[in-house]
Fold:
Amino acid sequence: AWKKFTPKGFTTPEEFEKECVRHIETTLARSLYNCDEFATYAGTALAFRDRLVLDWNKTQQNQTFADQKRVYYLSLEFLMGRALDNAMLNVGMKDVAAKGLSELGFRMEDIVSQEHDAALGNGGLGRLAACFLDSLASLNYPAWGYGLRYRYGIFKQEIVDGYQVEVPDYWLDFNPWEFARHDITVDIQFYGHVSKYQDDNGTSISVWEGGEIVQAVAYDVPVPGYQTENTNNLRLWASKAASGEFDFQKFNSGEYESSVADQQRAETISAVLYPNDNLERGKELRLKQQYFWCAASLYDIVRRFKKTKRSWKDFPTQVAIQLNDTHPTLAIPELQRILVDQEGLDWEEAWSIVSKTFGYTNHTVLPEALEKWSVPLFQHLLPRHLQIIYDINLNFLHYVERTFPKDRDMLSRVSIIEESNPKMIRMAFLALIGSHKVNGVAELHSDLIKTTIFKDFVKVFGPDKFTNVTNGITPRRWLHQANPRLSELIASKLGGHEFLKDLTLLHKLENYVDDKEFRKEFQEIKYANKVRLAKHIKEANGVSVNPSALFDVQVKRIHEYKRQQLNIFGVIHRYLAIKAMSPEERKKLVPRVSIFGGKAAPGYWMAKTVIHLINQVGKVVNNDKDVGDALKVIFLEDYNVSKAEIITPASDISEHISTAGTEASGTSNMKFCLNGGLIIGTCDGANIEITREIGENNIFLFGNLAEDVEDLRHSHLYGTYTLDSSLQAVFDAISDGMFGDASHFSALVNGIVEHGDYYLVSDDFASYCKTQDLIDEAYKNQEEWWTKCITTVARMGFFSSDRCIDEYAEMIWNVEPLPPKQEQ
Ligand code: 26V
Structure:
């Protein structure tokens, strides 16, 4: 049962204005004479924050008092986006504030857009963590997030002459949503050596000595739930020199530079988010980040547990820790170290506690993304942890040897240590061995990990250790906030906003599929969202696009496996076809706007080449008088969460076209469908569950299947392969210099023509183009088109992150919700 929400503090526009103005004048010490939109944003945020912190404090007290099992979600990335609109939704006074702001002469939309995104993530994995926090809070689970407080989030992308340029994202100038806890600090050790001593009973104990200490300082961010007082905590750690100051000895003896340098070196640990997504590079600073954050978080979790005075065997019944990919895997040897070296438990007892506490989520099968650390580097930075990992491995291999005495190769295949030069630690194996459950993020992906990277482990541990939790998204941000008019339309038909708490209620919309009035409003809303995006495109790119055209969107990180190159080759194919048409034929076309957005990792040349090609194609196509409205090509700069909130509701078709078997889940596919856009996609990731839920008639699937990928790759390398003729025509246009200097794109083309076409672009090209033609045909039949869109929305209930979190809670964490205490 949901507690009835009763607002406190300001309740009228006038009271809100008073609070807002008070904060501007006192908290910010700004004069009202030059009160601009930013100051008004700040005042508004602080007014809502005041109300948020009361709920937050109460929730934390309640959780401590209730003394039940808690969940800790460890993630190096939390891609939160903006917080104010979400705070207003959850505190529940947005209308009042809007009225107040308008009396002060401002529009709510302008004020909300003053906020800088909290962009502490790369893409899907980080945004999933943010959606999970929203669901955990909304469902009243006692849960904390633990992460790093990066001074610089994901870089800002600028497009200069068609090329990506990276600009630092300094986002902390004004952040009203964080609370520095200067009193909550943890000393974190690095380097040094391990000594063995005998204790009084003659047992040997290992002590990690020497090295250097860096201090972790806690910064807390409130995470409010929807229509509940429950407000969880996201704790982010910042690094600081251990003394908190520069070295006074050095300072007093005049070595100013080196004393400041030490301090800067400490602060470097939490300075910047690594901008690689799906590419592991083995950098020492990254390993330092991981240990720093794991050690601080575990110290904090253990400290909280110890206050309960329970015995250690209760630890796994009080604490569930979820590892978001392998990035927090060091938490496993760290907990073992705390229990054995510091708390004096024997190895077996400690290991039993450790392996009951952790759950591990895998988010990728791409081999280049699997984390490995070189043993020498690890030995240098974390000598005691290396010993512990060796012991974990030894015990594990003994067990495997006993169970499979005849399979000698098995031992080297499942060993945590890869016998290469240098030796490497396979973090995914350590995470798996140290956890009681391992899950993938969509059905196909969860099946694939059992037959590929973790095949041998299914034999060792049995199939029950592996499970699937198909990803989800929060309907609060991705429907209600991003598309308020659609949310209101749905609410008007379903008799309220309950669907935002139970998304399966959307199925009732199917009753309105044939309702004329409903269909008209649904279409008007899509059109208005497209007008809004067209306005943004005009401002940002200087290109006018027709809002009645079919908007075709692909926004996500740029990666070869996601195949933006397939999309842009398809666009070129379309352009060549238009050029070959008579003016009469062109008039019959469904006009199309191809919209791209996404960042390339700074060192990923192929991805940067794709961005360049998209921009070059746009330059040619958008200025070609023959083409006019028939085709426009747009690259939107600096794709991020707040831009996604504008783009997602405005799409007619979005592209989820990864090589089958490579995209673990995808989550934007869910966002587009929930907002009444259709998708073109491969049989990959969660596209498969989406198809099952919405029906094959409502999705445009194409391309080869995952089970055929291996053979196809083989045929490229050893067979006689002939390139599809229309793809050849696209390549000819590129080499003729139609889109500028052809040499810029030779690596991209040669990767397909000469180097085995690893992502099978040529194999899927014909099928992709044919499906795009089907989309044009389908769009011409507007009645059927809108039936598909509405049916899709109605059948998206499964993809709420609330469903997802309930599945984790039941199958992996074994935790129960803790409803907020009713007020007396
Ligand atoms: C890996 C690495 C490797 C080391 C350097 C930094 C870094 C940063 C992120 C990652 C994670 C790659 C895995 C990932 O992002 N997977 C995505 O997870 C989404 C949520 O489950 C899923 O929807 C996407 O399909 C999947 O690609």
